[in-house]
Amino acid sequence: MQRRYSLDISAQLVRSQGYVDGRWVSAASTFPVLDPATGELIARVADCGPAEAKQAVDAAYKAFFTWKQHTAKARRTYGDIVPSPFHDRKILLLKQPVGVASIITPWNFPSAMITRKVGAALAAGCTVVVKPAEDTPLSALALAQILLKHAADTVKKVSMELGGHAPFIVFNSADLDKAVAGAMGSKFRNAGQTCVCSNRFLVQSGIHDAFMEKLGQAMNSQLRMGHGSEPGVTQGPLINTRAAEKFYVMYEKRGVIITLMTNVENLPQSLAAGNVKGPSLNSDLPVAHQVADAVSLGARVLRGGKRGQGSFMEPTLLADVTTEMLCTREETFGPLLPVIRFNTEKEALAIANASNVGLAGYFFSQDVSQIWRVAEALEVGMVGVNEGLLSTSEAAFGGVKQSGLGTEGSKYGIDEYLNVKYMCFGGLEA
Q: Which of 202, 246, 264, 365 has its CA 20 to 30 A from that of 307?
């Protein structure tokens, strides 16, 4: 018999309406929020649309003029005094709030992403309109309820994230135990569903086999799939059944569609026997699509590789991976760990930087000169050196290339919500 789970939180925090202009508002329709581990309905939430969004923006705009004056007393966003080339003038640069900020957050860290963005925006003097992801709206609505007790303003309901596809490089000089621990944390945290998760693992030839053996042992001993409410569980489900359903990989064989369900281990034989063409996949490539593609091109499944029940996917370790495979070209967002063997530092950097995104990157080395070279050469906004977990609110969080614009966290995060005003004060006596 399947166990039933319940929300073990205060009933006052379970809200199903949007919060606009100081009141809870309903919408013409609702949408379901499901437990991704069981598929059971948790709640139905107001499906706010353009009309409700306009109400929220109008209310936030109206509140902005009062709020920016209130926060001016507490803000510590210092401007600058610039030396003037003229004796009768002073040049000042003032920082002022931009206005209403639209906060769009992903589902994988529903509370942390909202508080990180909203905190900086409110501190800068902005008002905010928040749209959380439809898969995890209850966390945002609970935060709105909590903020009500601490003088909140306008909050409402959307979904987006920064691109990642982070490289994880292990050089010959690395401490293998630390590298394995870093790989486990960087890949399998949140079942691989974070924007800073490592996606492409590059291991130098000299330590490749030893690293793979230690990593496989760590996966066997440390990873356990199940519902997040169960003690000892380390790997939960993918976010929803849509992600799991993309496990099904379609191949064309002389006009006949072959569907590969849960087992990709026999894919090479199927391909060889039937002159099967490569996969026909969309641009949103899930774990199983990538596993099947990699195996069809010669990769070996060392651990996992199968879909579990519902939204679950086994943590998967692939060997003999090449840069032609989809898992090295598209962000995974799941518990897939593909390993590429490389020979030289130059080769590793070329592979790592061959991406149109650049959020985070990781590498393990004990060669000090190499550490400086690689840290500066990696085309990413954040680098973990001998460390697989780097996110913290005290540090700047942001990427380069197509990994998004701007920075969150640290003293620099608030700048995204401020405009710089140039003030030229003339007519002064020299």
A: 202
How do 418-425 and 90-97 pair as beta strands? antiparallel
Task: Determine which one of 48, 126, 195, 197 is catalytic.
Answer: 195
Name the band, by pLDDT with cuts 50, 70 and 90, for residue 276: very low
CA atoms of 249 and 291, how far apart (whole Å):
10
Q: What is the identity of the amino acid at 4?
A: R
404, two tokens? 């998004």
- Decide: 163 and 374 in contact? Cβ < 8 Å: no
Task: Confirm whether 429 is a catalytic residue.
Answer: no
**Burial tier of 347 (Cβ tally within 10 Å: 0-12, 13-18, 19+):** middle
pLDDT in tens, 88-146: 788 888 888 989 999 888 888 888 888 888 888 988 899 999 999 999 999 888 887 77
Place of tokens 């199927």: 270
> pTM of the prediction?
0.74
195 is catalytic: yes
Catalytic one of 52, 161, 330, 408? 161
- Which token pair is 363? 């590498």
235 with 315: CB under 8 angstroms? yes
